[in-house]
Write a structure and sequence with these properties.
Oligomer: heterodimer
Strand content of chain A: under 5%
Order of helices and strands of chain A: HHHHHHHHHHHHH
Strand content of chain B: under 5%
Distance between the termini of chain B: 19 Å
Number of helices of chain B: 11
Radius of gyration of chain B: 23 Å
Largest interface: A-B, 83 and 87 residues
Shape of chain A: globular
Number of strands of chain A: 0
Structural class of chain B: mainly alpha
Largest sheet of chain B: none
Largest sheet of chain A: none
Shape of chain B: flat
Amino acid sequence: MTPPESKPRRLKRWVEPADAPLGLLVILIAGPIGWAVGYAMLYSVGGIGRLSRGWTVEPWRVAWETGQMVSSLGWSLAIAAVTTLLVTTLGVGLTLRCAGMLQRRAVLLAIGIGLGTPVMVWALLIQAWLGSSGWLSRFAVQAGLIEGPPAFPVLVQDRWAVGVVLALTMQLLPLSLLTFSQFWKTIQGDRLRETAMSLGASRAQAEWRIVLPVLIGRGRPVVALTFLFALGSFEIPLLLGRAAPQMFSVVTYRHAGIFNLSDRPQAFVMALVYFAVCAVAAVSLLRGLRGVER
Amino acid sequence: MIKRPSRPTTRATRSARFLGAACCIAVAIFYAFPVWLSLGSGWTYPHLGPDRLDGQPWRTMFRQSSVLVDAIAMSAAVAFAVATASTIAGLMTAKRVAVPARGWGRWLALTPFVLSPVIVAICWQDLFIRVGLASSVLGVMLAQSIFAYGFATVFFSELWDRELHRYEALIATLGGGWRARLRHAWWPRMGRLFMIAWFQTGLFSWLDYGLVSVIGGGRVVSVTMVLFASLREANLNQAMQAGLLLMLPAVVISSGMVLLLGRSTAQQRSQR
C-alpha cells in the first residue's frame, strides 16, 4: 500500500495545468447538470415557480394518483429494453454472420445512409410506409387485399408501440453495426474463431464461447448507451406514440408547455423520476465498464 | 492506380454479393419514396403516389421563401462549431479521465450523455432566460456543446487505451516531441476515431430538435424546426421535402465517412 499523500502535494496536483481538462469537465458538465436536477427538485416541491404557493408535495401526489408516473415509467423502460434487445441482437448477429459483407462498399454505403438519417425522418418514413393510410395500406387496397384503412393492422400510434420500436431500432442499428464490426476488426474476430476451431472447438462453440463474450464485453458500453438513447428518445414517440401512455420526454415536454403554468410542476416531477432511472442505469453502466477493464 | 488481383468467386462471396445488392435495392426503394412524394402535391388515399407530379414543394421553395435555405445555413454553422469545440475538448479530457481510472470523472462525463436533451433543456430554460441566452444562437450552441462534449469524452475514454499511452511514452523516450507523438502514435490509431466522434457530435447538433425548440424558443430556426412546422400543417409533400433537405448533408457526410472507413480497412488488409 502506498502511504497517503500529504495535503499540500494533493492540492498542488489539483492546480497542475494538465488537470485543466478535468476542470472543464466539472464546469461544463457538473454545473449545468447539477443545476438541472436541483432546479427540478425545488420546482417539484413548490420551492420555486411563478405560481408557487410555498412548499408542497401536491405535484407528486397528483403524479402518483393519476397513475401517470407509473405508466410512463413502465412504458419507457419496456420500449427501451425491447429496442436495445433488437438492436444488439441484430448488430452482433450480423457482425458474426456476415462480418465480411459488412466491409463491402455497397453495404457500408447503406449503413452510412441509415446513420445519417435523422430521427424525425425515420419517424416520418415509418408513418408514411406503415401508417393506417400509409403506402403499404394503399398497396393492400390496390391489390384487393383489404377494403380501406380500418382493415389495415394498426402499426403506428398503436397499443404495442410497434412503430416507435421499429423507428428506434432503425435509428440505432447502423451505429451498433458500425461499432460491432469495428470491434470485430480490433479483436480480429475471424482469427480468434479460426484459432478456437483449430484447437478443436466447433464453429458454434467458437462463436458462442469465445468470440461472442469478447465482442459483447467490448461492446457493453454501446449496449448500455443504446438503452439510454432509447429511454430518452423524444421525436419518435412524439410523432409515432399514442396519447397515453407516453414516454418520459414527451410527458415532460407536454407538461412544460408554456400555455399552462399550473401544470409545470408535473413536468419536473417526471423529469426527476427520469433522472433517477438514468442514475441507476448509469451506475450499472459504470459497473459494467469496470467489469470490462478487469 | 494498382489493380487488385481478382479473387476466385466462391459461393460465399456470391451470396455476400447478392445480399449486398438486395440490401442496396431495399435502401433505394425505402428512400426513393419520399423523393417521389416530395416531387408532387396531394396524396389522396388509395393512390400510391402524389396526385399531381408538378414539383410544387420545390418550386415554392425556390420561388418565394428562403426560410429553408436560411435554416440550412444556420444548422450547418451551429453543427460545425459544436462538433469542433466538443470533439477537441472531449479528446483532451478523455486522456485525463480514462487512464488514471478516476471513476468520478468518467461518471461525470457520462451524465449528459445518458440524459434526454429535451428534459434537461426544460430544466435549464429558466436559467437561460435569466442569463439572456434563451432564444439565441449562442445559447443553443452552448446547450448542444455540453451534450456533445459529454459524448466525445466518453467515446475517447473508451478508446484511449494503455497501448496508445505506451506508444506515446516510447516516442517521448526516443526524443520525439508532441508533433511526432501526434503523427506516429496518435493519428494512426485515433485519426479515424477522431473523425467518427467529430461526425457524430456534428450530427447530434444537426439533428437536434429538443434543445433547439426549448432553448431556441422558436427564434433559432433550424431545419428540424422547419420540418416539424410543416408536419404540423399536415402537408406530407412538404414534410417529405423538408425531411430530405434535413437528411441530405447528414447522409452525404455519413456515407462518405463510412466508405472512408471501409477503404482504410481494405488498405490495411492489402498491407497485411
